[in-house]
Structure to design on (687 residues):
């Protein structure tokens, strides 16, 4: 019977194509808008390391000005980065399973590429401890990261991104080759596979959706080569800073600190460690604000740093409200269409159709309309997302590339959302008109048909 | 057999009550051809709708082929209607966007028959009404008489025991009306009970029995012809 009902649905569509197209468009536009906004929202609010989000903690300590918070808009939060010396103290703790301290540095690369000598060129660089790679599950195409000892020595080893390896060496296994970074030779020990965590949760200070860096060098190379931060640095205290050492000893915050704590016991111990440390520092004149040392997991970190703004949530709410308006219009159109065809329904009742069968017939018709609306809505959604990507492309620059555009595609989540919406649309759009048509007295229409 | 005992049907709209049927009692035996006549608004169509299980009734008892239909659910009434009753309407009531074959197929679809059995029944019914060469035609491509024959084929395809016809020739010219009536008589001779509501005296005269309805009640059981003759005689005497 279902096949028969589908045939009737198409016959009904042919009978009033204008009305049918209007209903499909109403559903499609509503679903398209919802798909675009939910995809956008998911892209912005996604946790790219959800599988170990509850083991990774951003470390923040409130060393800020006693008279005012680091961010007056969020006065309960400590600064979002650490001072160099605090970061090193945390690094030396043996409580975490892993500890990463890092910052974004500047670098010029040169040397021999696959096509001969490389012209010196700027490359974004992350100065980091070696735990960065296993801690954030960074995938390697060739080779691997470096050991803890390479951080302190420091050893002249370097890890390069997939994209840089393509650019310099045409994508071949370049492990073992040497390139120069800031005029110092480094041996390549690892090449990353394609990797673009969005948002770039481990360092949001240079932009929530910045691409990862081109190069990764061991932590102590920053101090050795006097490479200070090329990212965000914030200071509250007037200090005379002219050297790297001066910067490292200052109250300026410019280092990101993360620890991996496998269980609550470890977390509790780490919290005690931080509290004890800041209490000790307080005795030496630092940390004059109320104690506010935080270990923040990735989910909470993204919320605290307002990666998803309330504007985006309002946008999603508005999109769903728009869908509801579209659906209400569709219900009205369906009701008009079904009531217009009431004599045919009366006839079918006279010929033996039960109320249940008529209801099912009309639900199949509604499902067909909703299905067409969903397919077209996906198309509209894809168009909308293409528009957003185009907007990102217009606003992105080489200095501030944005990875968010790469997330603005229809994906499984978008597809499921659209299909679910279509089902909900079917239920909401179809139930009432189909029920109404089944309740009509057939005799009233037979004489007048 | 169709038996109605003291059936009442009242239509209510706001404060107005219309008694469409009052203590309506009628028995139609299997194989009979009964014509129901009466002035407009007398309750003929209401009777046909109640008989065809399209409308419920307020009081009384109705046995259709031995089954009491008073307390049947909607599903049961629909099934009974589909299996035992065929309808023919004044306006043909064919579905305009289905071809003739698919129109005849409609009642069979609700009976969940196999495609093969449906095809046999449709072919046979269209053969009987002489439309086997018009299966792919749309209703709008047929004349009024052909459309009514297609509607009769649809009513017959389910092999019903009762054929309920509401002014079946009302929209046809006299030639086509005669052809349709010939067809109905042929169907009746094959054993189908026919109840036909009509205004047409000629048509009523060809039925085996006439029932005259006035104000929702049966006025008497005399044939229309007898009553017409009596009226004529009375007028002449004056």
């Amino acid at each position: 019977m279902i096949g028969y009902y589908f045939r009737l649905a198409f016959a009904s569509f042919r009978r009033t194509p204008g009305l049918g197209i209007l209903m499909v468009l109403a559903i499609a536009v509503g679903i398209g808008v919802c798909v675009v906004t939910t995809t956008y929202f998911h892209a912005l609010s996604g946790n790219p390391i959800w599988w170990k989000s509850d083991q990774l903690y951003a470390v923040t300590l409130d060393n800020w000005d006693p008279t005012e918070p680091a961010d007056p808009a969020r006065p309960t939060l400590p600064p979002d980065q650490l001072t160099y010396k605090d970061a090193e103290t945390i690094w030396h703790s043996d409580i975490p399973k892993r500890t990463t301290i890092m910052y974004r540095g500047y670098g010029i690369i040169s040397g021999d590429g696959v096509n001969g000598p490389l012209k010196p060129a700027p490359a974004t660089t992350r100065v980091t401890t070696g735990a960065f790679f296993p801690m954030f599950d960074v995938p390697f195409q060739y080779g691997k990261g470096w050991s803890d000892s390479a951080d302190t020595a420091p050893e002249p080893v370097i890890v390069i991104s997939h994209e840089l390896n393509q650019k310099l060496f045409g994508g071949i296994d370049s492990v073992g080759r040497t390139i120069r970074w800031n005029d110092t030779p480094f041996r390549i020990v690892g090449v990353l596979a394609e990797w673009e965590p969005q948002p770039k949760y481990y360092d949001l200070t240079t932009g929530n959706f910045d691409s990862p860096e081109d190069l990764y060098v061991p932590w102590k190379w920053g101090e050795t080569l006097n490479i200070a931060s090329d990212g965000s640095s914030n200071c509250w205290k007037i200090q005379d800073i002219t050297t790297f050492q001066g910067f490292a000893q200052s109250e300026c915050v410019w280092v990101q600190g993360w620890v991996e704590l496998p269980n609550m016991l470890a977390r509790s111990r780490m919290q005690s460690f931080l509290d004890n440390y800041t209490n000790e520092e307080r005795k030496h004149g630092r940390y004059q604000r109320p104690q506010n040392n935080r270990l923040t997991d990735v989910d909470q970190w993204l919320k605290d740093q307002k990666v998803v703004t309330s504007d985006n949530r309002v946008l999603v709410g508005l999109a769903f409200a728009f869908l509801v308006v579209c659906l209400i219009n569709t219900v009205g159109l369906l009701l008009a269409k079904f009531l217009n065809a009431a004599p045919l329904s009366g006839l079918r009742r006279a010929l033996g159709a039960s109320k249940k069968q008529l209801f099912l017939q009309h639900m199949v018709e509604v499902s067909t309309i909703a299905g067409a609306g969903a397919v077209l809505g996906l198309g509209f959604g894809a168009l909308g997302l293409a528009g957003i990507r185009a907007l990102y492309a217009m606003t992105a620059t080489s200095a501030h590339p944005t990875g968010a555009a790469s997330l603005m595609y229809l994906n499984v989540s978008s597809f499921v959302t659209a299909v679910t919406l279509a089902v909900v649309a079917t239920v909401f759009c179809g139930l009432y008109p189909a029920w109404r048509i089944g309740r009509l007295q057939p005799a009233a229409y037979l004489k007048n048909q | 057999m169709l038996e109605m005992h003291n059936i009442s049907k009242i239509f209510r709209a706001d404060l107005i009550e219309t008694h469409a049927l009052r203590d309506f009692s009628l028995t139609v035996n299997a194989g009979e051809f009964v014509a129901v006549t009466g002035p407009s608004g007398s309750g003929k169509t209401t009777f046909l709708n109640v008989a065809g299980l399209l409308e419920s009734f307020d009081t009384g008892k109705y046995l259709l082929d031995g089954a009491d239909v008073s307390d049947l659910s909607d599903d049961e009434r629909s099934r009974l209607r589909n299996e035992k009753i065929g309808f023919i309407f004044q306006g043909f009531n064919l579905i305009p966007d289905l071809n003739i074959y698919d129109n005849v197929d409609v009642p069979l679809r609700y009976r969940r028959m196999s495609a093969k059995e449906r095809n046999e029944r449709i072919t046979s019914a269209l053969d009987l009404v002489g439309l086997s060469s018009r299966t792919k035609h749309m209703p709008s491509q047929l004349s009024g008489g052909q459309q009514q024959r297609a509607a009769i084929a649809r009513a017959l395809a389910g092999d019903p025991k009762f054929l309920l016809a509401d002014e079946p020739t009302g929209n046809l010219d006299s030639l086509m009306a005669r052809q349709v009536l010939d067809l109905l008589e042929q169907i009746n001779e094959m054993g189908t009970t026919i109840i036909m509501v009509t205004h047409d005296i000629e048509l009523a005269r060809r039925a085996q029995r006439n029932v005259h309805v006035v104000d929702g009640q049966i006025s008497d059981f005399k044939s229309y012809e007898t009553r017409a003759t009596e009226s004529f005689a009375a007028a002449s005497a004056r």
Q: What stands out?
A: The domain at 2-237 of chain B is CATH 3.40.50.300 (Rossmann fold). Strands of chain B lie at 2-13, 16-28, 33-37, 59-64, 67-68, 85-88, 162-166, 193-197, 209-214, 217-218. The interface with chain A takes residues 45, 49, 52, 54-55, 74-75, 78-79, 81-83, 87, 89-91, 93, 95-98, 106-107, 109-112, 154, 158, 166 of chain B (CB under 8 Å). The mean pLDDT of chain B is 86.
